Amino acid sequence: TYTNDPIDLNNCDKEPIHIPGFIQPHGVLLAVSTNNIPTIVQCSQNTEEHLGLTTQEVLGLPLEHLIGKDNIRQVLARTFSASVTSDLQYMDLTINVSGNEKVFTSVIHESEGLFILEMEPSYENGNMEGNDFEWISRFFSRLKSTDNRVEASQIAAEQVKEMLGYDRVMIYEFDEQWNGKVIAEAREEGLEPFLGHHYPASDIPKQARELYLRNWLRTIVNVNYTPVEIVPLLQPLTGKPLNLSLSVLRSVSPLHIEYLQNMGVGATVTISLIHDNQLWGLITCHHYSARYIPHRVRNLCNFLGSFFSSELFQRQQLDEYQAEIRSREAATQIANIFIGNTSPVRIIEELQDEEQTLLSLMDASGAAICYQDKLLLYGDTPTREQVRELAAWLAGKAEDYSYHTSKLSLEYDPAKVYKEKASGIVYVAISPGQHHYIIWFRPEVVQLVDWAGDPAKVVIKTDDGMRLSPRKSFEKWREVVQSTSYPWTTKELNVLPMLKSIVRRQTENQLVQAEEQAL
Ligand code: BLA
C-alpha cells in the first residue's frame, strides 16, 4: 500500500484509507479519461474474470470499444449528472463478454479529473426482487406507530435485518467525543448481545467517519476476500494512487478487517445516519458468512435510513422538549416551597417529601439541599461530612452562584473515594453567602455500565488473535471515560438561572423578615 509510516493501533487515524490501491473482488473498476474519446487509463486486475479481457487489453482502450455504443451514451449521461449530484444512481449495462451477454449493475462518479466506472455482475438480483413496496410500507407504518427514540430504533433495526437477510443489525449512536453506543439491536437467536455496549472513538477513526458522511452506504461483501490491485498504481493526472473516496468497491483497511475477523464476522453493511450534515450514528449490520447485497436493496436501505434518521430527530426534539418542560415544572415546584412559606421549619418539612421532584429536575441519581444549617440528602450521595466538605470547595469554585462538572474526581481529589456515586455534580447556591445550596449527583458511567453487566467480561475467544475486538475496545473505552459521568446538557442546566433568581430573592426576603422580627 501507499503509506510512509506503518499503521498500528495508535495511529489509525493517519491511515490513508481513501487511496488503498486495491478494491474488493466482487466487481470491476475502470478509471476513464474525460477527454473527447473517453479512454481507460487504470483498471482493477480482475478484468479478465469479469470482462473476458486482460488488463493489458483493457488499458488504453476507448471505453466505447469495451461497452458498446448504446451503453456509452447512458454512461456519459450519468457522468454528467454524477458530477452535479452526489448520489450514486445505478444503471444496468449489458455487455458482450466472450460472446455472451452479461448484465452489470454499474455506477459512475468523478474522481480528480477522471471518471470511475464500477461494474458488478447482477446475477444475484433474483430472489430479492419484488418485496420493495412491502418493505417500504411496513417500515413507514411500524416506525410511525412508535413513540420514543429507542422503540423507533428497535423497529428500524428489525426492518433492515429483514431487508438484508443479515444476522445482526445494530443502531450505533455517537456521543460528543465520538465514542459510540449500541442503542438498539436485532439479531439471530443464540448470538451474544451487543445492545448497550460502548466503544471508543478510535474504533471508527475520523477519516472513516468523513467517508461515511459522503457515502451513505458501505458494504464489505466478504471479509476474507483477496484485494484486487488497481493498475497502474498511480493516477496519471495526480501522480498518486486513484482516489477512491466515493468508490463503492474500495478495499478495506487491513486493521478493520482484522477487527471483523476477530469478531467472526463474514460481511458488513453500514448505513450512515446523518442530520444537519453531521454523522450522528450508523446502522451497522453483520453477517456471519459472506453476503452480497444488490444495488437496488442498498439504495432502498439508504432511503429508509435517511427517513428513519429524520423521524428519529423529530422524536428526539419532542423527547427533549418534554424533558425540559418536566424539569422546569420540577424547578417551579421546588422554588414554590421557598416562596410559599415563611417558616424555615415548614420549608424543610416540605423539601423532605420532594425526592422525586429534585432528582428528576436534573435527571440525577442523588441530591443534597443545605438550608438553615440543615443538610437534606436524597437518593445516592456521598456522606454528610463529604457533602459539607465538597460544598465548601464548590463555594470557592462557583461563578455566579453555580458550578458543574462531569469529572469531579479529576478536579477535586477527595472525590476519588466516592466517584461511583458522584463523578458528575451540579451546584447552585440559593443564598448570597452560599450557606444555602443544592447539589445534584450523577454516578461514574463506567460503574453504571458494570452494574448493568460488564461487556468486557463476555468471553468471545482467548487466543492471541483477539487484540482487536469489541471486547478489547470496551476496555479501551472504559479507560477513556473512567471517572466521568454522563454529561450535563445545556437544556438541563437551563433551569439553574430560574432557581437562582427565584430562590435567592425569596431567601433574601425571608432573611430580611427574620432580621426585622428579631429587632
Ligand atoms: C470502520 N469500524 C468501522 C466500521 C464500524 C466499526 C461499524 C464501519 C465499517 C463496517 O464494518 O461496516 C466499528 N463495528 C465497530 C464497532 C462495533 C462493530 C465498534 O461491530 C461494535 C459492535 N478500528 C479499530 C482500530 C482501528 C480501526 C483500533 O478498532 C485502527 C487501527 C479502523 N475502522 C477502522 C477503519 C475503518 C473502520 C480504518 C474504515 C473501514 C473502511 O470503510 O474502509
Rg, Cα atoms, Å: 30 Å
Give the biggest sheet: 7 strands, antiparallel
User: What percent of residues are in strands?
Assistant: 15-25%
Q: Report helical residue fraction.
A: 25-40%
- Quantity of strands, as a count: 18
Secondary structure: elements and pairs:
Layout: E1 22-23, E2 28-33, E3 40-44, H1 47-51, H2 55-58, H3 63-67, H4 69-84, E4 91-97, E5 100-111, E6 114-121, H5 132-144, H6 149-164, E7 168-174, E8 180-187, E9 198-199, H7 206-214, E10 217-220, E11 228-231, H8 254-263, E12 267-275, E13 278-287, H9 295-339, H10 344-352, H11 355-362, E14 366-371, E15 374-379, H12 384-397, E16 402-405, H13 408-411, E17 424-429, E18 437-442, H14 445-451, H15 470-481, H16 490-493, H17 496-518
Antiparallel strand pairs: 1-11, 2-3, 2-6, 3-11, 4-5, 5-6, 7-8, 7-13, 8-9, 10-12, 12-13, 14-15, 14-18, 16-17, 17-18
Helix pairs in contact: 5-6, 5-9, 6-9, 9-11, 9-17
The chain binds biliverdine IX alpha.
